Amino acid sequence: MNVTVIGLGLLGGSFALGLREIEPNARITAVDISEVLERPAARGAADEFIRAGDAAAVDAAVAAADLTLLAAPVRRIVALMPRVLANARVLTDCGSTKRAIVAAAAHSPRRGRFVPGHPMAGAPAGGIELARPDLFRGRRWLLCPEASDLDAVTFVEDLVRRLGAEPFRIDASVHDRAVALTSHATQLVASALAAVALESGAQMTAGPAFEGATRVAGGPPEMWGDILSTNATEIAHALAALGREIELVRAGLQADPPDVAPALKLLARARTLRHR
Q1: Domain hosting residue 69, numbered range
Q2: 120, 151, 170 - which closes a domain
Q3: With a threshold of 0.85, does the pTM exceed it?
């Protein structure tokens, strides 16, 4: 198998390392900026290294690959999509939002060779140094194959399973609406909680609950700027829904005497839903 990975960070690097384990004879070409490709951790993840600015070499690597993976920030994937898709046999991606990426591929005559994807795996920090071959094991790998050729979808799903992940098909619009709650709003709420607690000097009382709730706080602006701008409406709706829940609790607790019923109802509802 010949694979080209464009973007050798946490996800692209973990994909390459995982592929090495299941396909020892696979030839992996990595495309990224020189600073990334020259790092010691990158050298063990691929066989060939191409600078992102070398367009002719990138085109040739994509054309020669059985599969090309775009593992870059969303707006970079959008910018690369027309040229990469024009040369790819099968193309998939790791973008955190899907509608903008799907739209970038919509008018290509080779649209069917693209299988939009989003592995639900990662870490608070990124980079090739944190990549590991088991990152995707036991994780769901979302795919949005509404306009993809059946053989391309089958190829990607089979590889996803071999990497230890569970492929799960979902419409691109449904995907963006769902991850606005399960990922994007989660990042913002965790960051808000961490900022308020740390700025008030409460960190000396932090325990496992705080650590778990704020594990993903922060995040690289180059990645999150893309996510926020390409899924802004859905994230705003998610935050509004969360705000309504919290406002009911806040109003009850601020009453005189305090009314804890809204908070207890919220806890009970969450317990019931999680246990289903």
Answers
A1: 2-170
A2: 170
A3: yes
